[in-house]
Amino acid sequence: MKKWLSLLSVIVLGLILTACGTSESASGSKGKNDKIVIGYFPNINHVAGMVAEEKELYEQTLPDGTEVEYKYFPDGSAFMTAIETGEIQGGLVGPGPAMNHYMSGAEINIVAAGSTGGTVIMARDGSGIESPEQLQDSTFVSPRVGCTHDVQFEALMMREYDLKSDRLNGEMKHVTGKPATYSQLFASNRIDAAAVPEPWASKIEEEGHGKVLVEGDDVAFNDTLPAAVFVTSSELKENDPELVQNMVDAHKEATTFIQDNPEEAKEIAIKKIKDITEQELSASVIDSAWERIDFTYEVKLEDLEAFAAASFELEFLKEHPDLEGLVDTTFIEE
Question: What SUPFAM superfamilies does the database record attribute to this sequence (predicted)?
Answer without folding.
Answer: Periplasmic binding protein-like II
